Fold this protein.
Amino acid sequence: MSKKNQFTIAVYVENKFGVLTRVTSMFTRRGFNIDCLTVGETECPEYSRITITMSGDGYAKTQMINQLRKLFNVKKVEELEPETSVNRELALIKVKNDPATRQEIMSAVSIFRSSIIDYSPAALCIEITGDPSKIDAFIEIMKPFEIIEMCRTGILAIERGAGTLLNK
């Protein structure tokens, strides 16, 4: 059995109602799970970019890319290789604001180059961006301080250099 790897696919689609449903339904019909999905308007308002991260072998990757290319409303599909792209994630983490641990939390925030974006007597809300492994490490450090609430965006990825996926 081959080792399953995680890979990221960028999909440019027409910015129209129902397109995201068609894309995600294709994954469901094929029995593949999406690990992470982010969507947003591109530099061209008529297009949205869907960044999909999933796990699978080479066959799964090839099949998904080929099936995505066949969908109506899809302009361009490409795998984003880790060596030639930048991957980032955003997380907002609310932790208990305890005077006994506040300085330790603030030190971790500084070390991880994150920011406290909301401060109340009961809680600190922290914003952190970076590689998913950095986010995971920061969450592990915050667990002893009592995480009240947390949300993550999922991976965003873009190719390095001057080229754009849409114009290829």
The beta strands are 5-14, 34-41, 47-56, 74-80, 85-96, 115-119, 123-130, 147-152, 156-159. The mean pLDDT is 92. The domain at 86-156 is CATH 3.30.70.1150 (Alpha-Beta Plaits). The first helix runs from residue 19 to 30.
